[in-house]
Each structure stands twice: as structure tokens, then as C-alpha cells.
Write a structure and sequence with these properties.
CATH architecture: Sandwich
Helix content: 10-25%
Radius of gyration: 21 Å
Shape: elongated
Number of domains: 1
Number of strands: 9
CATH superfamily: Cupredoxins -  blue copper proteins
CATH class: Mainly Beta
Order of helices and strands: HEEEEEEEEE
Structural class: alpha/beta
Largest sheet: 4 strands, mixed
Strand order of the largest sheet: 2-1-4-7
Strand content: 35-45%
Number of helices: 1
Length: about 120
């Protein structure tokens, strides 16, 4: 009888631990591949949650040089054709949006812009 109560209690503790871990865990890292083409990004919006780690891999599949500029994060990376760079993982702790661009002359004006949108 005592052994049966201990087993039931252990199961309850395990279930409680699982529920608490699910409630308090950080969201999984969002991994995004942003591809520069001539003259466009493969995506114009990246959606993440407040506090969610974000890892962006940026790749230049175009025939021209491109760069990724995210001013609010201090990112300014020049990419020659074929280059691939992985940004350090970052989090944004408040809802809103952050613009990213290619600031090679004429590229932003041609539409190489996008946003990282952070929601609750």
C-alpha cells in the first residue's frame, strides 16, 4: 500500500515538473535563412516573439554584392556573391519592429528592405 502511494506521488511530482518546465521555458530559437538575390530579399518579414532567441543566416545568391544592415542591432555585413554569414543569436525584449535593408546604392530604393516583427 505504501509503495503504491509513493509511486502515485512520484508520478504527480513528475507531471508537475513537466507542466512547470513548459510554462517557464524560453521559446525555441527561431532560425531564419535570409537570401539576397538581385535585387530582393527572399522574405520581407521575419516574425518572432518577445524574448525569443533569433539566429539569422544570410546568404548572397545574387550576382551583385549585397549587404545586410540592421541599424538597431549594430549589424552591417557585406556579402559578395556566394557568401554566407551567420549572425550572433539575439533577442528583442519588447514588441515592435526593426527594419533591415541592403544599403548598396540603389538596392534599398529597389525594394531590398524588410522587417523583423516582434510580438507578445
Amino acid at each position: 500500500m505504501l509503495l503504491k502511494k509513493q509511486a502515485t506521488f512520484s508520478k504527480l511530482l513528475l507531471a508537475l515538473a513537466i507542466v512547470l518546465a513548459a510554462c517557464s521555458s524560453t521559446p525555441a530559437t527561431l532560425k531564419v535563412t535570409l537570401v539576397a538575390e538581385d535585387i530582393m530579399w527572399n522574405m520581407t518579414e521575419i516574425h518572432a516573439k518577445v524574448g525569443q532567441p533569433v539566429e539569422i543566416t544570410v546568404r548572397n545568391d545574387g550576382a551583385l554584392d549585397h549587404n545586410l544592415v540592421i541599424s538597431e542591432l549594430g549589424v552591417d555585413i557585406l556579402l559578395s556573391p556566394g557568401d554566407i554569414e551567420v549572425l550572433p543569436v539575439f533577442t528583442i525584449d519588447q514588441p515592435g519592429s526593426t527594419k533591415y535593408i541592403c544599403n548598396i546604392p540603389g538596392h534599398e530604393e529597389a525594394g531590398m528592405v524588410g522587417e523583423i516583427i516582434i510580438s507578445e
